Design the sequence.
């Protein structure tokens, strides 16, 4: 059987895991899943070379869960992740895939989280622990995390852990795990340090390479909306009100969602229909034919059901659910902008899914711009335009309207009203069920856009840095990592929160420059905390925290931070 025709039921997963996969709505495995799951079920170590967003989490979680013994509470699977965000995301995926396994527990552990809560939960027991290297090391040193009976270990995004300076910590952790464990290492690239880890700690690993073919058409405009402050369906209907579309293919993750969303859009007056893997071929073809013949305007589909669809009039693709696989995104938006025509792709991104957005941008080498949700005034203008257009079409038609001329003329004479007054009353009656004037609440700002604006240009015409003063109780520091190193504000926040134990809400404004950055931290920060931050690596650079002295310093070294009550300056070694 070729991988093209492979389904999850062909992969020898346990009945409970397969049931959860079906419940989630997955239909066919991605390339990395099709290759990795059989190898892991056979007990092999693997090295998976694939970009973020290719379905790697399911590739290791599904086979490992199929072998978990839920009658025993000791830690059987350990996943190491570079950031707290990824640790949480992976833990949530394990919980979702284990929904049909009573007695299963997964625990994410990372810096910045209450240690006492983690200690209590570890004492109760968890079959799967997902953690950042620093916090896993803390628990191993305390003796609160017992890995003596570990059967599976996963190194997720190993190259990212290398860039953040965790590779020695990873090696230390591996030394404290049983030699009999099964190990899976996943990385987008294979630098020599990661190759060394694989050679040293994995046993005859099977190497799985997934080619990256993620390229999008230049004639497709791509935008995203950050799901915040407004219900997704309400946001979708706002967008549909103002987007001049011919036909739309809208993608969701599950078969159930195709039907639910189609019904909700039809209830709002749109000509919509679902297409999914449960439909027979005849019904599927009939639905696509309706889209071609303009008897249907919106098609809600899953990835599998949309295969082979080529309809010229599709002007828009809307990713109502962001795909986990960046190549799936490319295939989705390829349904528009065909044969040289222009198209538009709109992507909905939930706050927890921003990593997937970054992965898509990285894989496609194309930035996706943030879009503003249409305001009430914008929707009002669109409805008024449609209203005027309808009136114009009637007036320009050859329809006999003499009856209405007599009817309304008699009314004006009998009631002694002006034609303009009558027109206002008629317009009000026509739009009463769908008012032309729309008033909507303001939308909350987009946190991703704010972060990107933070990392944008921070210099004036004369090279002077522009940023607001630190908030009360905060102090501005300099760190030796910047844009030329590939750093992003999220990298800095994640590294400090994970490795120094400082909560992300305690980290203030971050400004990226070419060779360094500034960030605001608590003014009364302890010297030990500052020393921890100074030694952290981000994108392979030691932060070397020092007090910021402003633009006059012109990028040259500067005063190291002197903690209160201390005269000695600190720096990383």
Sequence:
């Amino acid at each position: 059987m070729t991988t093209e025709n492979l389904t999850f039921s062909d992969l020898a997963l346990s009945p409970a895991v397969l049931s959860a996969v079906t419940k989630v709505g997955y239909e066919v495995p991605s390339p990395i899943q099709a290759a990795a799951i059989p190898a892991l079920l056979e007990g092999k170590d693997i090295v998976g070379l694939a970009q973020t967003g290719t379905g790697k989490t399911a590739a290791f979680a599904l086979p490992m869960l199929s072998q978990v013994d839920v009658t025993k509470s000791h830690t059987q699977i350990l996943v190491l992740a570079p950031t707290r965000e990824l640790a949480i995301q992976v833990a949530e995926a394990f919980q979702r895939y284990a929904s049909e396994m009573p007695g299963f527990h997964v625990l994410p552990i990372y810096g910045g989280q209450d240690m006492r809560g983690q200690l209590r939960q570890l004492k109760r027991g968890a079959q799967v622990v997902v953690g950042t290297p620093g916090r896993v090391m803390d628990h191993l040193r305390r003796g609160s995390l017992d890995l003596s009976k570990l059967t599976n270990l996963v190194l997720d995004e190993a190259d990212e852990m290398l860039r953040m300076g965790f590779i020695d910590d990873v090696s230390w952790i591996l030394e404290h795990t049983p030699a009999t464990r099964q190990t899976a290492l996943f990385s987008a690239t294979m630098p020599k340090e990661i190759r060394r880890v694989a050679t040293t700690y994995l046993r005859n690993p099977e190497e799985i390479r997934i080619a990256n073919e993620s390229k999008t058409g230049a004639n497709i405009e791509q935008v995203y909306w950050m799901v915040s402050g407004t219900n997704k369906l309400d946001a979708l209907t706002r967008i549909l009100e103002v987007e001049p579309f011919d036909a739309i293919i809208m993608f969701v993750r599950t078969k159930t969602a195709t039907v639910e969303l189609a019904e909700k859009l039809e209830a709002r007056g749109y000509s919509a229909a679902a297409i999914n893997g449960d439909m027979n071929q005849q019904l599927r073809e009939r639905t696509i034919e309706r889209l071609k013949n303009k008897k249907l305007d919106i098609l809600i589909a899953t990835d599998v059901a949309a295969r082979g669809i080529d309809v010229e009039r599709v002007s828009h693709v809307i990713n109502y659910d962001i795909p986990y696989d960046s190549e799936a995104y490319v295939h989705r938006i390829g349904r528009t902008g065909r044969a040289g025509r222009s198209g538009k792709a709109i992507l909905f991104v939930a706050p927890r899914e921003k990593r997937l957005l970054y992965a898509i941008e990285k894989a496609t080498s194309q930035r996706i711009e943030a879009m503003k949700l249409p305001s009430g005034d914008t929707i009002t203008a669109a409805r008024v335009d449609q209203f005027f257009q309808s009136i114009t079409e009637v007036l320009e038609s050859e329809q006999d309207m003499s009856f209405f001329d007599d009817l309304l003329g008699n009314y004006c004479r009998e009631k002694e009203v002006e034609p303009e007054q009558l027109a206002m009353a008629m317009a009000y009656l026509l739009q009463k069920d769908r008012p032309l004037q729309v008033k909507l609440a303001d939308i909350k700002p987009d946190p991703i856009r704010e972060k990107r604006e933070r990392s944008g240009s921070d210099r004036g015409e004369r090279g002077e840095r522009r940023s607001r003063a630190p908030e009360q109780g905060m102090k501005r520091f300099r760190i030796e990592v910047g844009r030329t190193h590939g750093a992003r504000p999220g990298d800095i926040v994640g590294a400090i929160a994970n490795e120094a134990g400082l909560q992300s809400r305690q980290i203030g404004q971050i400004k990226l420059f070419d060779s360094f950055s500034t960030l605001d931290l608590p003014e009364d920060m302890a010297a030990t905390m500052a020393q921890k931050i100074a030694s952290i690596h981000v994108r392979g650079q030691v932060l070397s925290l020092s007090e910021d002295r402003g633009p006059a310093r012109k990028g040259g070294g500067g005063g190291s931070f002197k903690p209160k009550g201390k005269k000695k300056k600190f720096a990383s070694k």
The longest strand covers residues 220-226. The longest helix spans residues 376-396. Confidence is low (pLDDT under 50) at residues 445-466, 552-573.
